[in-house]
Amino acid sequence: MRYRIRHHTVYRYAEPVRRSVHELRLAPRSGPLQAVHGWQIAAPGRLSEARDGFGNIVHSFTLGAPSDTIGITAWGEVEVLGMQAGTHGAFQDAGADGEVRVSPLYFLSATPLTAAPAPLRAFAAPFLAARRDVPALLALAAAVAARVRYQPNATSVDTAAAEAFARGAGVCQDQAQVMVAACRSLGIPARYVSGYFYDPKAEALASHAWADICLDAGRGLWCSIDVTHRCLTGGRHVRLAVGRDYPSAAPIRGVREGGSGEALSVRIEIMPAQAGAA
């Protein structure tokens, strides 16, 4: 599948922002699961581009003049690639020649948002006691989705996996972080993934989140599981960034001086595109 994607974000402030610094992870990169066919970002400041230790494309800009509106738009085309026969959902994700990335083992350590208390670890342990392959991980993901029921507005971007697990409700971000926390607590590297999920029936599309689970750290072998939909990712998933938790893979982060009364609006459009289209 090939998609045309447009992601438009606007911040409005009752009191103007005096100065702000912004970090964007809004540019997908080509890899074993997708090929990017052109991508652009428009922002009110001069963009600089870099790669972080996870392999993400990171853009940043600074605004030094007062502003009561900050708009950021990213758009382009991404082709989602099919899995090779016989891989059973596994893929290799290693840096290109000369690219420095953290080891998959870096994704073993917990963060404040992905720490797993004893009840969460006890919940996950039976699913991975006998084996730690893709079917076992999918069974755990289904159990997480059932335990942390999808409920819009039940949590915020600051909600920790432990809190969502105890509450029994959350959104895709929470379900992904609970899955990540569960796997790490049992010695399995796992990372948070931000991206898009194409749903032609949805009235309004939003960013999505899921989890990458490491199957073999030495070979850089992973599987990608959408906890919300209880499946391996496939032809409707477009990856933006990976990280240890939501903040390290968030599409937009920043700090500001001033700017009280913030109001945020996000509009995401995803349309299938013909493979040969310009």
Automatic annotation (TrEMBL):
InterPro entries, A to Z: Bac_transglu_N, Papain-like_cys_pep_sf, Transglutaminase-like
Residue span(s) of domain Transglutaminase-like: 164-229
Domain of life: Bacteria
SMART domains for the chain: TGc
Protein's UniProt name: Transglutaminase
